[in-house]
Amino acid sequence: QVQLVESGGGLVQAGGSLRLSCAASGRSFSFSSYAMGWFRQAPEKEREFVAAISWSGLNAYYADSVKGRFTISQDNTKNTVDLQMNSLKAEDAAVYYCAAHPFASAQTMGSMSRPYYWGKGTLVTVSS
Predict the structure, then answer these.
(1) How far apart are CA 109 and CA 101, in angstroms?
(2) 85-89, long-range: CB < 8 A, 24+ apart
(3) Nearest alpha carbon to residue 126 among 99, 88, 96, 98
(4) 52: left (phi over 0), alpha (psi -120 to 50) or beta
(5) Where are the beta strands (DSSP E) in 27-116?
(6) Which helix (H) or strand (E) holds 21?
(7) Which of the residues 6, 10, 23, 75 could staple to 122 if both were Cys, CB 3.0 to 4.6 A apart?
(8) Alpha carbons 73 and 54: distance in angstroms, whole number
(9) How far is CA 87 from CA 66, 68, 101, 107, in A?
């Protein structure tokens, strides 16, 4: 069992930055066995993929809508996965969910609708 807890959401002005963090834990959890990612869901919209990082931390994959603005990274010593969000737009407002899937690549996670593990989400609000 893997537990994922997101933090860092809040209110930010358009054009601003925010950093989300996901703390992963669980019996024998190790990043070496999981691809980690972020998804988001805006009101009345389907949940969508945002970014993912491979178990090695060497490969990242992004949705076209956030490429060049968002950066995903992981800290293996702390078991955390961060999402640095810059140049935020109104359309980035959503609940952001951390996800983990065993033995998957970052790109594969990008095509998933239901990774194996989810966090409860953190709300990002962007004011214009």
Answers:
(1) 7
(2) 85/17, 85/18, 85/19, 85/20, 85/124, 86/17, 87/15, 87/17, 88/12, 88/13, 88/14, 88/15, 88/16, 88/17, 88/18, 88/124, 88/126, 89/14, 89/126
(3) 88
(4) beta
(5) 34-41, 48-53, 60-62, 70-75, 80-85, 94-102
(6) strand 18-26
(7) 6
(8) 10
(9) 10, 9, 28, 24
**Residue 76: per-residue pLDDT:** 85
Digitized pLDDT (tens) for each residue of the chain, 128 residues in all: 899 999 999 999 999 999 999 999 988 777 778 999 999 999 999 999 999 999 888 899 999 999 999 999 999 889 999 999 999 999 999 999 999 999 889 999 999 888 999 999 999 999 98
Q: By the 8 A CB rule, do 39 and 99 touch? A: yes
Do residues 100 and 36 lie in contact, with contact meaning Cβ atoms separated by under 8 Å? yes
Reported for 76-80, long-range contacts at CB under 8 A and 24+ positions apart, including other chains, are: 76/31, 78/23, 79/23, 79/24, 79/25, 79/29, 79/31, 80/21, 80/22, 80/23, 80/24
